[in-house]
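Working notes for the structural subgroup meeting. M.R. asked for a predicted model of this chain before we commit to crystallization trials. I am recording the input and output together here so anyone reviewing the notebook later can reproduce the run.

Input as submitted:
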Amino acid sequence: MANFLLHVLVLALCVLSNQSHGILTDSVKVYNVVDYGAVGDGLADDTQAFSDAWNATCQSSVSFPAMYVPQGMTFLLQPLTFNGSCKSRNITVQIDANIIAPSDPFAWKCPGNECHRWITFLNFNGLFISGSGTINGQGTNWWGLSCQQNKRGCGKKPTGFVIENSNNVHIDGLTFVDSPQMHIAFERSTWVHATSLTIQAPKDSPNTDGIHIQHSQNIIIDNIRIGTGISFMEYSFFICFIIVTTVFQLRMVHHTSTLARSIVGLVME
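Returned structure, recorded in token form:
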């Protein structure tokens, strides 16, 4: 816990002092996506700039590297995986901007033409994701897509935000809206703490679960506001030790997961 609090304090000082990627001390460095070519106008594809900024953050030899996505901008991203095989185990991703997916499903650049995920954090052991930003999957056009129109409309549509095969991950403060399918998924991960998140989608949006958890242990979910089309939280396969302290339901939804209630005592307010 002491290390975690130090990490948060260092990041706060870092962002307040410098929104560029200059070195502040011998142990702290910020990598601003704008400095790696991100435009942030909501039209230009900023995927490569984010990838480059992440590679620099991941390969940094300082103790507390941070990738910074600055406020007041909108960044368009194609499906992107952030791989956690990094030098530091104390990495921060600070998101204060809007991040959007392509609004047209046929504009998504997916491996093998199968779009299962949008933003993925993979293989981490120590990660803090925070900020006041919004992750917008722009899923409206996905929701009505059928198999007759295109095979992308068959079966599983993209999950918006995935934490996979990771340990000691903290997610705080972000807003998630209109994912093509599930908004957040924790898969094969341990010690994930999600707090002060807002997750929203229209009540008639299909299968837009708020949080989906599978093959994971020691998940702590606190102070989450969820209003989505189907179940606000879903569990499947091997699950062990999940604590859900408070989930605020933003609106009446089509279905409240009875399985979730049976596994963890949800407190609705």
